[in-house]
Specification:
Low-confidence stretches: 4-12, 300-322, 357-408, 438-448
Radius of gyration: 26 Å
Strand order of the largest sheet: 1-2-3-4-29
Shape: globular
Distance between the termini: 63 Å
Number of helices: 5
Structural class: mainly beta
Largest sheet: 5 strands, mixed
């Protein structure tokens, strides 16, 4: 599993990759840049995603945990423990405030990123949940399971509001279209399907792969879709015309994941051959900010459909001869990698641990923030000018984790004991003065 970062650093992209080797890798496109390998998970890492601002990185693993990383060379991470089986996917909401996780324990869990706390679970699936994704406006979650259903959830009512079923196979991956009116599913039955969530019907059906489809990604414009399959190919579909336009060959073996960049000018793919391939698109250049603004204006389920929302209303079963352009980069593109980049191992330490038993999410006025995983970008605006400034100063005065030899919980307990001893000392001194008849010191008025 791999994901593009949503921000540019030094005019270059970053790519995060997850692998069966239990490591998380962070790659930079800068010349002679180092790659960072994050060590923390104890089993296969199944999913990884950057937050919308690119300042956090979430990962899921078969070790039943979810980790939240700060993508720098210090390796600070926060571990979430609530699932009772391997976790299959992670997904941030578009505002970065929430994280959805899907697991083989048949549940979807939603977490608050601001408080680093568990919020609620969604239970209706009867088999492993393979994927869960937020809609762009955050009002809906789509999930797919090995029970051969795709479910739409309302994040306000926490209820399943729509259900799509398929008797032929189950979906390995599912996601919302950029405008939020449709969902696409990658099927184990070799199909790619487009569903209209307003009409609750199948719009398009592509039978272009010869093996199961593992992943897909929408172009930010919503006009194109790329799929990755165990047949070793990537397919690019034109959704407006309802046809296959490109077949990409470059991996040797199954292709597990594919992802467009934020603006759609590039995409990356990863497979069983332990390779990550970076591709450049020849689509029309689009300003990703303009696309997001345009789609947000159209995110109203009950509003009339727009021109760009109208897909062909009949299924498109592409069988038999496939009229598409085939591209094999191994024959047409020179490998520009002259040497393996130096890899820096980063051993993570856990700054916080969140579990399902903690459900309070919004801090009250004056409540202390988490000092060891402070994330200013996730704070509500009301805290930005006062609380954030104060807590940031407090954090800067504290010793770093590498310098701290006593666990944080023990330190806080010792500080509490010292406060109690100070109170007892003052009371004892007050009693001595009273017995001796000496004038009381100036702190008399504050002692009762």
């Amino acid at each position: 599993m791999l994901r593009f970062n949503n921000q540019c650093f030094f005019f270059c992209f970053l790519i995060a990759t997850a692998s069966w080797d239990t490591f998380l890798m962070l790659w930079s496109f800068r010349p002679q840049a180092r790659a960072f390998r994050y060590v923390g998970h104890k089993d296969v890492v199944t999913s990884v995603q950057f937050s919308p601002l690119g300042n956090l990185l979430a990962s899921a693993s078969r070790d039943r945990t979810v980790r939240l990383w700060i993508p720098d060379k210090r390796g600070k991470s926060s571990e979430f423990k609530a699932h009772t089986a391997p976790v299959r996917s992670v997904d941030f909401s578009s505002d970065g405030q929430f994280l959805a996780t899907a697991s083989e324990d048949k549940s979807i869990k939603v977490w608050s990123m601001y408080r680093q706390r568990f919020l609620y679970s969604l239970y209706r699936h009867t088999h492993w949940v393979r994927c869960a994704k937020f809609s762009l406006d955050g009002r809906l979650i789509v999930s797919c399971s090995e029970d051969k259903t795709i479910k739409i959830w309302d994040t306000t009512s926490k209820q399943c509001i729509s259900n799509f079923s398929d008797s032929a196979g189950f979906a390995n991956f599912v996601d919302f279209s950029p405008n939020g009116t449709c969902i696409a599913s990658a099927g184990s039955d070799h199909t790619v399907k487009i569903w209209d969530i307003r009409l609750n019907k199948l719009l398009q059906h592509y039978q272009v792969h010869s093996c199961g489809v593992n992943c897909l990604s929408f172009h930010p414009s919503g006009n194109y879709l790329i799929s990755a399959s165990s047949d070793g190919t990537l397919k690019i579909l034109d959704l407006l015309e309802g046809r296959l336009i490109y077949t990409l060959q470059g991996h040797t073996g199954p292709v597990f994941t594919v992802s467009f960049s934020k603006g759609g000018e590039q995409f990356s793919s990863g497979g069983a051959d332990a390779q990550v391939l970076l591709w450049r698109t020849n689509f029309d250049e689009l300003n990703c900010k303009d696309i997001i603004k345009r789609n947000i204006k159209r995110l109203h389920i009950d509003s009339p459909p727009h021109l760009f929302d109208i897909y062909p209303r009949t299924p498109h079963c592409h069988e038999g001869k496939i009229d598409s352009v085939e591209i094999n980069p191994k024959l047409e593109v020179i490998d520009l990698q002259t040497s393996t980049p130096p890899i820096v191992d980063i051993l993570s330490f856990d700054s916080t641990t969140a579990t399902e038993t903690i459900v309070r999410t919004v801090p009250e006025k004056g409540e202390e923030l988490c000092r060891y995983f402070l994330n200013p970008s996730l704070m509500p605006s009301e805290y930005a000018s006062t609380t954030l400034k104060k807590k940031t100063e407090d954090v800067s005065d504290l010793p770093s984790e590498s310098q701290r030899s006593i666990p944080l919980a023990v330190t806080e307990a010792l500080e509490h004991i010292m406060d109690q001893l100070n109170v007892l000392t003052q009371l004892f001194t007050l009693k001595i003065f009273w017995l001796s008849g000496t004038c009381l010191p100036s702190f008399q008025s504050s002692v009762h």
